[in-house]
Amino acid sequence: MKTSNLIIIALFTATQLGLVSCSDNNPINPDNPDDDNQKNELYTTVLTNDANIITQTYVQLNDEASNLTVKAQNLSVGDEVALEAAKEAWKNARAPWEKSEGFIFGPVENLGIDPAVDSWPVDINAINNILNSGDTINSSVLETNNEARGFHTLEYFLWGINGDKTASELTNREIEYIVAAAKNLENKSQQLANAWLPSGGNFANVLVETGPSNPANYTSQKVALKELVEGMQGIANEVAVIKIENPLNGNGGNPKPNAEESRFSHNSKLDFANNIRSIQNIYLGQFNGVDSKGMSAVIAEQDASLDAEITAAISDAISAIEAIPGTFTDAIQNNREAVENAQGKVLELSNMLQDQALPVISNL
Question: What are the residue ranges of helices labelled H in 22-40?
């Protein structure tokens, strides 16, 4: 599947770029500039490139989730090497997921995949009920409770509630649960990748081929471009006012450590930085070292100064998050100024996207 998916993505890109090359046959009509159903060559290029980035991100997620299943199946009580390998595989799968949160729309929302893989906090009572049930634990058993599956349930088992779990503390029953949860995550990620791939639901083409009959109601290129900007703004806002704010000030202006997402693994800072990288990838049209035209090209055509400001704001937000000393758990107590600075930079980016970028797109 991994090899064939990448081939399909390459074919998809070539096909869509073929659409771009033909767009001169259907340019914006200067005699009717308000006709939103006409196709603009630059917008087609940007939508094609960003749809490809989204698809590749989900394929990478599925590949890493598949590897996590393998590492989970290798676990045994007392095997520290296997436990460390499973932890590393969790982190490797977590990264593309967090880099996808700038585009939580389409299948990831419509198919209920976001809550199925990333609900927080975990429901420890539900987890214990499953553990103590005596029933076989498999992927299908976990379908009924989002808070008892997904990334954070796996994180809870692999690291423990205090982040210091050892392989000798694992039980065979817990390993059974870990394998089931990993497989469930793999299944959801495969469902998501397939929904975007040309060989599956081909939602990438839905994002690109806008028009009155579009099945996702992307009735014009403007509507599709606006979806991308709203996705970027949404995750910037979430990082600033929920993911950072709740653990930083959730206890009446004081720290609330148990509100911190990914606190078992101390992966929170990387999660937040990768959330902003999801914005960076779509905005700049970048993925795995390959540059293409992203939303930046659309903004720059209308307002070059604003484009430069947004590009800098993205970089500043990532740098500020990474500059928080130590773990986020410790920083909300002992380096609050650094956390507040990062929060401020992310909020600046969110406001810039909301108050400046979105109006530019709305006025195209």
Answer: none
